[in-house]
Structures are given as C-alpha cells and as structure tokens.
Amino acid sequence: MEKRLGIYIHVPFCIRKCAYCDFYSITDFSILTAYTDALIAQIRAFRPLARGYLVDSIFIGGGTPSVLPARQIGRILSALRATFRVSPSVEITMEANPGTLDAENLAGYREAGVNRLSLGLQSADDGELARLSRIHTRRTFEESFLLARLEGFRNINIDLMYALPGQTEQRLADTLSYAVALGPEHISFYGLKLEPETPFGKDPTIASQIPDEDEQYVMYLSSVHTMESAGYTQYEISNFAKDGMECRHNLKYWHLDEYLGFGPAAYSFFDGKMFSYARDVERFIMNATDLRLLFDEYTVPSEKELAAEYVMVGFRLRRGIDVADYAARFGDDFDARYAKKMKPFIDRRYIVKTPEGYRLSLQGMLVSNYILSEILEF
Fold this sequence. Notes:
Elements: E1 3-11, H1 32-45, E2 53-62, H2 70-83, E3 85-96, H3 103-112, E4 116-122, H4 126-131, H5 138-150, E5 156-162, H6 169-182, E6 186-191, H7 199-202, H8 213-229, E7 233-236, E8 239-241, H9 248-254, E9 259-262, E10 267-270, E11 273-277, H10 281-287, E12 295-299, H11 303-314, E13 321-322, H12 323-330, H13 334-347, E14 351-353, E15 357-360, H14 362-366, H15 368-375
Parallel strand pairs: 1-2, 1-9, 2-3, 3-4, 4-5, 5-6
Antiparallel strand pairs: 6-8, 7-8, 10-11, 11-12, 13-15, 14-15
C-alpha cells in the first residue's frame, strides 16, 4: 500500500524583509535561476527514495514564491512529477505577496498546476501595513485577489495577523470584516510574535506598543466568533476554513504524517527521521545533492519522542487528540500517561473531554504552550 507524502518547497527570496519576519529569505535575485536549478537537482536526487509514496500535497512557501516567474514554478513542479508519483487530485499551494502579482503570472501559475493560492494580507489598514514593511496596500491586495478569481483560482487562503503594534480592537474587527466579505475559502490568523533578530525584536519601543494579554484574549475570541459566524470553521488554533477547504498540506504537520522539504531552512519528517537544512542559499546551490553538507539538524526520534510530538501538534487541532489513534500508533494508553497532568487544566476548562479523547478549549488555545510544557515529557 502506498504511503501518502507531502512536499514543501522553500523559495527564500523577498523584495524586502518585513519588520516582524524571522523566516529565512534574502533579497539577491541574481541567483534565482541557479537556485531553481539546485532545487530541481535535489528533488531528482530523491528518486530512489520516492518509491512507495504518493504525493497528495505540495506547498511552495517562502520568502515570496511569487517572485519566481511561472516558468520556474513550472520547472519545479515538473521535476516533482518526474520524480514522485503525484496524485491527480494533489493540492498544490503557493504563497504569494499581492505586490508581486499580475494577470499574466497568475495565469502561468495556474497552467503550471498551482490550484491553491495563499495571499498575505496581514492587515486591511494601510498604516498597519506600512508599519509591518509590507510592499502592498489594501487596494493592491484587493486587485490581486480579484485577479486570482478571474484567472480561475477557487481555493484561496488569506493570511491575517493580530496583536500588531498600536492595533485597536476596532481596526482588527474592520480587517476581519473586510477579509470575510471577500469570501476566501480559508483564513489563517496569527498573533504577532516578537522574534529577537528582526527589526521589531531589536526595537525596544515595539514591545510596549503590543496589545497586552487581556486585549489579545478579547481580540482572539471576538475574531474567532466573527469568522465562525461568517461560515469559517476553526479546525486548528490559527486556521479557519469553509466546509471541506482545510489545508491538506498543513494537516500533515498536525497529524504527524510524513513530509519532505526542499531548499535551505526546509524541514522534513521522512522515513522515521526528522531533519532540516542550513539557512544558507549559496551553500545549498553548491551542495544541493550532497545532503550531508546541508544538514542543520538530523535526528532519529524515539517512539517516546514521537508520541510527545504527536500530542503537541495534535492539541493544535480543534478536534484535539483521538486516544484510540494514539494507542494504535504508539501502543500506549493516553489516559494512563496524561490524565493526572491534565486534570488541573480540565478543572479550569482549558482542556475539554470529547467522545474521541481531549481537546483544548478556546481559552486553552491561548495558553497552549504553557499547558503543553506542563503535561509533556521530553
């Protein structure tokens, strides 16, 4: 029986780095073609390992993948099809910055096989967008969204952020109202985190402008209500979808299914191993097919470590942990291992008992990192 596999392709190029972003990317576009060639070489090197797998999701992320011409995206997808057995119904997502899109390249991405688009709006307030160093405006975003519809995209995600510096509840509500009125199939909704090595993280004045925990609590709960009232079901802490439009690829991460990453900074969970590549484009281009020279991390997790990872990612899902599935995968009794540690959080209604197992309440999702640090054994 074929095993299902997800593929992640990292495109580490941006026109300009956003002030909050800690993802690996560079602004030197002179090596785009060389990078694409290296990606394709690395993909082809996995041919001997590809047997027995059916690829049913591909995610092209970044960076800003939409800085790559459609022809290069087509070459990458062709290499994947030549190397792996790809499902006829594969979900192929590509992230895109609205400031980089036009009708011609959108049509080219569709022709190459991209059938799901993820557009980074972040905010519908032009002042907030400028503060974030985004290269687009609200108007630019709307033009890109409508162009994508005209070019045939019927599965579009919008990325939104909350807890921005100086953001009010009303401005966030206005952004949510704007986003749901456009009718995307999926909305990703993330709270801003100050990463130390970013411009925001290095600016001591930013932290004092971030809404406090009580304000963030209200922002999150009211936003969840707004989206669910508009027909978007929350299926993960930060993700909301219309019926049947959940992101198939991201569900692989939260179900602890297998996926392969290609490109610098990409992560993989494949054949019982977890590994990532160094955040270095030039090193990648020079050594794309010699993985030993690219590894940043490489581990073979124990069964106990995998079980803990399963619990950690599983609690991100709104449906939570299925104890029967846990027992089938790890031969372990979930209640025997975790019930005592979970009891204080159940009593405070941060964890809820379900017919299948356990899940976090909305309040629990807001403090999920703390809860997991208390119940997990690493």
